[in-house]
Amino acid sequence: MGVGGNRSLYKKKTPKSGLLSKKTIRHPRYNPASKDNDIMLIKLLIPANFNKDVQPLDLPTSCPSPGDECVISGWGTTKSPQLYFPPVLHCGNITILSQEKCRSIYPRYYTDNMLCAGVLEGGIDSCQGDSGGPLVCNGKLQGIVSWGTQTCALPNKPGVYVAICKYINWIRETMNNN
């Protein structure tokens, strides 16, 4: 079950804030070892009700550029490597890094289907429990939280995200076929 429009996990705004899934569709080339193609679509049982707190995000028409400012949000741990999951939604401002920089930081697993973003000085990052959450740049869903280091928000260790721009055709085809 998903949650829409709630900033707190323990205070429900309305009884209809829960979103039940009818079907999940994992990318056919997902590789759990490398995390390549770490994307899944969820078909809801009933359409979400849009209101002032629940709005759709636009898909991008191009990939983000290095230096683009983005926002991450989630209920993941705020103390790393300890685990403390806050009851309220947290957000952070981070920056897109170049593909070359990301490859140099993570040479073993980083692929062209990924992007990395963060604050190179450390202190702001997505973390355990944020996986699957949004990376929003200029009002567009540019990434999905995928993976990073065991200890989050370290200097020179940005988070790694699924690059949505690489999957637009798959997303549209999958939605049309389902």
Automatic annotation (TrEMBL):
<dbReference type="InterPro" id="IPR001314">
    <property type="entry name" value="Peptidase_S1A"/>
</dbReference>
<keyword id="KW-0645">Protease</keyword>
<dbReference type="InterPro" id="IPR009003">
    <property type="entry name" value="Peptidase_S1_PA"/>
</dbReference>
<dbReference type="GO" id="GO:0030141">
    <property type="term" value="C:secretory granule"/>
</dbReference>
<protein>
    <recommendedName>
        <fullName>Peptidase S1 domain-containing protein</fullName>
    </recommendedName>
</protein>
<keyword id="KW-0378">Hydrolase</keyword>
<keyword id="KW-1015">Disulfide bond</keyword>
<dbReference type="InterPro" id="IPR033116">
    <property type="entry name" value="TRYPSIN_SER"/>
</dbReference>
<dbReference type="GO" id="GO:0006508">
    <property type="term" value="P:proteolysis"/>
</dbReference>
<feature type="region of interest" description="Disordered">
    <location>
        <begin position="1"/>
        <end position="30"/>
    </location>
</feature>
<dbReference type="InterPro" id="IPR001254">
    <property type="entry name" value="Trypsin_dom"/>
</dbReference>
<dbReference type="Pfam" id="PF00089">
    <property type="entry name" value="Trypsin"/>
</dbReference>
<feature type="domain" description="Peptidase S1">
    <location>
        <begin position="1"/>
        <end position="176"/>
    </location>
</feature>
<keyword id="KW-0720">Serine protease</keyword>
<comment type="similarity">
    <text>Belongs to the peptidase S1 family. Snake venom subfamily.</text>
</comment>
<dbReference type="GO" id="GO:0004252">
    <property type="term" value="F:serine-type endopeptidase activity"/>
</dbReference>
<dbReference type="InterPro" id="IPR043504">
    <property type="entry name" value="Peptidase_S1_PA_chymotrypsin"/>
</dbReference>
